[in-house]
Amino acid sequence: MTIEEKNEMYSKTVQKHIKGRKSKTIALIVLPCVGVAISLLLSGAGKIKQTEISEATVLDSMSIGEFLEQNANGSAIYTGDIKAVDPAICSEESGEYISFHHTIKQEITIYDEKSEKYETETTTISDESDSCPKIEIDNIIVPTGRFHDLPVYSKTRSEGAASNQFKTNFSYTPAHLEGTFFLKCKNGEVASVRYYESADVAGEINNRFSIARVIMWIFIIGIEVFLVIDIIKTSKTIKIVESKIQ
């Protein structure tokens, strides 16, 4: 390869890295702007939710059925319990549930002489899931599909030797559950029910949106740090390649 050909090759490489650095620099500038825009959207969505909560009727001296008789359309907050109608039953676990998912997997660890590494082979022995069709809340019954954000608990256990284990994973929502529920009603029916752990629904909503913003900014900062490091590396590479051009 002649000197001219080498110089041409190095020049193309430099231009390629310069374009890449430019794209990364633009992303470095644009990403925080996107983060600010998303933060504003989250704040707006949070305020809308807060307004919905503040306008809802708190059912402290009225049943849900009575509320529906007086308000064909509207929203309400009910604090109390719910229970599964015709609860789901797992063949491998005792108890009754609103919904559950139960799996048993076998993990066999063997030594591969070719790769000289231990490899794990996983086989699903059983996979069972079910949910109840309806849920009773106060003095009415609502289809299960209209409930949202119900808590899901889980437990795992392992049996057998380390090289041949049977792992059981069980996630479930119990048949009986207490909490605070935000109801949206339409045409005299409960259209949706959203679960909240505490009676301070407004505070819980605010916490959820705050956590979402924090997670988003952690993600953005992580990408920003990666881009800065990558831009520095690219700049060093450009200088090295440029020094080879005669």
Question: What topology does this entry show?
Answer:
Blueprint: H1 3-55, E1 57-58, H2 64-70, E2 74-85, E3 97-112, E4 117-131, E5 134-137, E6 140-143, E7 147-148, E8 153-159, E9 164-174, E10 176-186, E11 189-196, H3 201-244
Parallel strand pairs: 1-2, 7-11
Antiparallel strand pairs: 2-5, 2-10, 3-4, 3-9, 5-6, 8-9, 10-11
Helix pairs in contact: 1-3
The largest sheet is: 7 strands, mixed
Q: Approximately what portion of the residues adopt beta-strand conformation?
A: 35-45%
Q: pLDDT below 50 for ≥5 consecutive residues: which ranges?
A: none
What's the shape?
A: flat
What this model shows, in words?
The chain has 246 residues and is an alpha+beta fold. Helix content is 42%, strand content 37%. The protein has helices spanning 3-55, 64-70, 201-244, and strands at residues 57-58, 74-85, 97-112, 117-131, 134-137, 140-143, 147-148, 153-159, 164-174, 176-186, 189-196. The strands form two sheets. Strands 1, 2, 5, 6, 7, 10 and 11 form a seven-stranded mixed sheet that branches. The chain has a four-stranded antiparallel sheet with strand order 4-3-9-8, with no helix packed on it. Strand 5 (134-137) and strand 6 (140-143) form a beta hairpin. It is flat, with a radius of gyration of 29 Å.
